[in-house]
Amino acid sequence: MSDALGLIVGDLALSTIEDDLSTEWPRCLEGRERAFRVTTAFWRVMKEAAERHQADVVLIDVGPNLGAINRAALVAADHVVIPVASDLFSLQGLKNLGPTLRHWRNTWQQAKSKAPAVLGEQPNGEMSPIGYILMQHVERLGRPTIAYEKWQARLPGAYCESVLGEAIDQPITLPDPHQIQRIKHYRSLMPMAMEARKPMFALRPANGAIGAHQTNVQQCYEDFENLVHAIVDRAMLKMGARV
Question: Residue 67, SS3?
Fold first, then answer.
């Protein structure tokens, strides 16, 4: 782990507070102090950790669901990056996620103005989508395989309509400007990385990454480096537009 990175570890025990988060969410609209304290608990932990370690950016990793825990985590987020795959489940997921994000955002904006003054600063809860990442991308001879290609072709329209709430009158010209990056399927690198307890792009010959594996490790490093820069650029552009 780099000295420039910090980690706030999650815990399966967090599931025990899901009912409380569900109960208190609508009570924020009534201006109840406890409701705000419960709903913003994750944000306050992140804020304190960021201030303590002088962090410039906080990344929040949430699971693929629309439960109360993820809602409380996303209330702390200014931007949202959406990972998708070339399949039916991701298309349906976009259709569910987009309206839900807009509803959460609108509800929080209404509630935030009713927060008791004694609580001080509250999270912005903007949850602004800045694009999607195509995960486990499979190519052959530089092109997606036919089985994946038909699903990939549907993702741009689904993202615009469901997540951005924009009507699409004609097919979107590729490459899709909302697609941040394609992360290919690295196959055996993932179990190898789990065994070594390190990122895929940090695997070494001593971890079993030899021959073609080492080539994939280097490609993985470059892919994720490009992804990081692309996300930062898009977030900064959004922030500049907002200012």
Answer: coil
Provide the 3-class DSSP secondary structure of residue 185: coil
Same domain, 110 and 148: yes
Same domain, 28 and 57: yes
Strands of the 79-84 sheet, one edge to the other:
79-84, 128-137, 179-184
Q: Evaluate whether 230 touches 180 at the Cβ level (below 8 Å).
A: yes
* Residue 150 domain flag: yes
Task: Report the greatest alpha carbon distance in the chain.
Answer: 61
SS3 label, residue 139 = strand
Q: Are 194 and 174 in contact (CB under 8 A)?
A: no
Identity at 110, one-letter amino acid code: Q
Q: What is the pLDDT of residues 28-82, one digit of tens each?
A: 999 999 999 999 999 999 999 999 999 888 999 998 899 999 999 999 999 999 9
Q: Which residue reads 């992360």 in tokens? A: 183
Q: pTM above the 0.70 mark?
A: yes
Which structure tokens are listed for 101? 């994000």
- d(Cα 44, Cα 58) in Å, to the nearest integer? 12
Q: How many CA atoms lie within 13 A of 22 on its CB side?
A: 8
Q: Tell me the three state secondary structure of residue 205.
A: helix
Structure tokens given for 1: 């782990």
Which residue in 91, 188, 184 sits closest to 136, CA to CA?
184
What does the angle CA 14 – CA 60 – CA 161 come to, to the nearest 5 degrees? 110
Q: Which domain holds residue 59?
A: 1-78
Q: Under a CB-based contact definition with an 8 Å cutoff, are residues 200 and 220 in contact?
A: yes
Phi, psi (5° rounding) for residue 8? -100, 115
